[in-house]
Design a protein that fits this description.
The chain is of the alpha+beta class and 482 residues long. Helix content is 33%, strand content 22%. Helix 2 packs across helix 5 and helix 3 runs parallel beside helix 5 (150-161).
């Protein structure tokens, strides 16, 4: 059984298909049709809802794509949909802002925008404080096809600057008490009698359950796994949800490494990675949408073994490791050795990614990362490049160069690295290294880019790294290339 709050109503679900998404649950089981299905793939934001959960003694509100969230992920949390904002016949201030600023035309996307504005308002700073960048980030995952974004951004400004206490603030203590009462205390199971989803609470429980069900699909954020249900109409007989395991959601900074639990949402990884590696932070801000980053995990981005995943090239260039667990045993593997072939990894049956270890930055190393995609925001890479160089007295002492989108797996450019190591970082070395990339990769042509384009872009990104390294220190870098 799982328990959660549907706004203020306690819901206990015992016999429900665990393949049911939150979007389906709202519309088909609860008759709440304000939440819309636009794409069923997490691209448009029409299905945006807000989930509240306890972080210590406080409530935290985050947006999610309900089309990619299975109901089991709600266990112990509060679900808020657009119907819940109106109170005693009065529109919520974010709804009123959309009306006042003429932010809606056909209205199909409006509920999703309203929910993103609601979360933006809740997470904004002091009253009358408006941060345009924060608003752009909050709304980047919501698409509007008829209004245009200016009036919606004006609504965001009004909602933040005219922020007033609402019914959620008034009932905060009550909600916290309700969530404490239903906090998970033992492993939960949601099953319709045929399909089931298990939610262990500890790494040890996960290891035991996974060993007993090695064919189960591991569910963290579900932003990739849920597509098998929503896009390919497959059924997932057994899932193991890892989102309740506190140990796997932690981000800890040690002397030499950042340790990131495999179930930590990307939003929670941002501060630690951006502080050490600003380019990593910039890439994470372009990693899909805020709704996706609030769900998706670093462990999942590695585990799905996509050749165009954004984080693996950066992690490989930084020399990151993955800690793999099976039963009571664990092993540490360099991330570059985790990927074997397209969608094939070194993970054994019953083995799972427990955490990722990222070396901390040191002043003697240069790190640069670039993402090239058709859209600036909320898009998949055509090419993703990462470079870590150690330069001593003008000579490259160490080099790690990694790319995504250039092969069946994210991988290092070994010929390029050998050309760089031991040479002066000058234009002659640069061009020899660019030529060496032709031996490292034979990229494919697909709808995102041609083979020739990918190879030229990879070479030009290395040139860009060189130019930035030799540019005057006062010159502003531009890393957001499309």
């Amino acid at each position: 059984m799982i328990q959660f709050l549907l706004n203020r109503e306690l819901r206990s679900e015992r016999a429900l298909d665990p393949n049911t998404t939150v979007l389906q649950y709202l519309r088909e089981y609860r008759g709440k049709t304000g939440t819309k299905e636009g794409c069923a793939s997490g691209d448009c934001g029409a299905c945006t809802v807000v989930v509240g959960e306890l972080v210590g003694e406080r409530l935290r509100y985050r947006t999610l794509n309900s089309c990619l969230t299975f109901v089991s992920a709600l266990h112990g949390k509060q679900l808020i949909s657009v119907e819940d904002l109106k109170d005693q016949g009065r529109l919520h201030s974010v709804q009123q802002a959309m009306v006042d600023c003429h932010g809606s035309q056909c209205g199909f996307c409006t509920p999703g925008f309203v929910m993103s504005l609601f979360a933006l308002q809740k997470n904004a700073g002091a009253v009358n404080e408006y941060d345009p960048h924060q608003a752009y980030e909050a709304l980047a995952g919501n698409l509007c096809r008829c209004t245009g974004y200016r009036p919606i951004l004006e609504a965001a400004e009004q909602a933040c600057c005219a922020k007033q206490p609402d019914q959620f603030d008034a009932r905060e203590a009550e909600t916290i008490a309700q969530l404490k009462a239903i906090a998970p205390r033992e492993m939960a199971e949601l099953s319709d009698g045929e399909k089931r989803c298990l939610s262990p609470l500890t790494v040890a429980e996960l290891a035991e359950v996974y060993a007993a069900n090695p064919d189960a699909r591991l569910l963290a954020g579900g932003t990739d796994l849920a597509l098998e249900v929503t896009q390919f109409h497959r059924e997932l007989p057994v899932m193991i949800h890892v989102g309740q395991i506190t140990e796997m959601k932690q981000v800890q900074i040690a002397d030499r490494h950042i340790e990131i639990g495999a179930a930590a949402p990307l939003t929670d990884c941002y501060a630690a990675l951006a502080a050490e590696y600003p380019d990593f932070g910039e890439l994470l801000q372009r990693f899909a949408s805020l709704q996706i980053r609030n769900q998706g995990t670093l462990g999942g981005n590695i585990g799905n073994a996509s050749p165009i995943g954004d984080s693996p090239p950066l992690l490989i260039a930084l020399g990151a490791d993955v800690v793999l667990r099976k039963g009571a045993s664990s092993r540490t593997l360099p991330l570059e050795d985790y990927f074997i072939d397209y969608k094939v990894t070194a993970r054994q049956p019953g083995e799972f990614i427990e955490k990722v270890r990222v070396p901390r930055a040191t002043p003697d190393r240069l790190f640069r990362a670039y993402k090239v995609s058709k859209r600036l925001d909320d898009d998949i890479s055509a090419v993703c490049a990462a470079f870590e160089l150690r330069i001593l007295d003008g000579v490259i002492d160490e080099a790690r160069v990694a790319f995504g989108g250039m092969a069946a797996i994210p991988k290092r450019a070994m010929n390029c690295e050998r050309t760089l190591i031991g040479a002066a970082f000058d234009t002659e070395t640069l061009e020899r290294a660019c030529t060496a990339l032709e031996k490292d990769f034979t990229p494919l042509t697909d709808f995102r880019a041609s083979r020739e384009y990918r190879l030229l872009v990879a070479q030009n990104l290395l040139r860009k790294c060189f130019v930035e390294q030799h540019a005057p220190k006062t010159e502003t870098r531009v890393t957001a290339y499309v």
